[in-house]
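Progress against Task 2.4 (sequence-to-structure conversion) is shown through the following example record, which the project officer requested during the mid-term review.
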Amino acid sequence: MYRWCTDEVEPHDRFDYWREVRSKGLFGVTAELERERRTDFYGEFSLRQLGGAGLVELKASPYTVERSTSDIAYAPSDSICVYQQLGSGGWFGGMRGSDFSIANGSFATSHTDLPYRTTPLGAGGFHLRILKVPVSSLPTQDKRVRELVPRTFGDPTLTPLLSACFADLGKAAVDAEGALDAASLVQALAHLALIERGIVRPGSRLGQAALRTARLSQARHLISRHLQDPALDPAMVAGQLGVSVRHLHMLFEAAEKSFSLTVTDERLKQSRRLMLEAPERRIADIAASCGFESLATYYRVFNAAYGMAPGDFRTQGSEGH
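Structure tokens generated for the chain above:
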């Protein structure tokens, strides 16, 4: 993973460096900002190569970005982008069709080689994730893929699926344990975007594969959010996913672990984190807070998974620190 921020450059040079080296040289866009505001400019980004795609997270104080026809000619990309808006919102314009705003928590998509302009709406500036997927890596080669002018997602049912996939993709970048395969997540995000734009049918092979991956990702996030609930079961998660219990079990059949094993594994990992973060907390309280029905069950399951009692793990962890 590559990280960079403007703290590495003298204040009077920060925006110029950002504009010429980062914006134009790395992203193929033109950055604009009034000269009197440039000394206060701040920007940072990370770039990760995952599953054949590039994942960028960018934060920056307000400025204007343009992807002009000359920028496209200088740095063609032939990729589709899926944007996750994390900041106060943004404005897109300058392309065919209407200008639009994108709110915090919303998603948009586009093809990289079509002109646009964008700027943040709030004083907080930019904060967004951008997944750039080369068209050549997509199984579908429909010519409409290259006609995707920037547009927000109009289907609200896709939002939790997209959020879960983006979160898991970020997790895969730093810790592969427990995360879905990065290539599957990239393809799922790309094809969810193409489903929303009417290029891929939800019932097609590609559409079904994308929805399976995304639903499994969302199911795992639902499990993580409800670990302390003893009533956590397949019916609860299936209901929140909007699928049948049978369909939920089918999702986990394709994964490494079943639903019940995934729940147990997540509860154990959470208990280990709590034991290390709160060494003064009683083990019985930790077990209950992670959803184990009894202390005896917790000890039995923990010992089977790690070959030691929880107290021994805590002792080893405190000695390691």
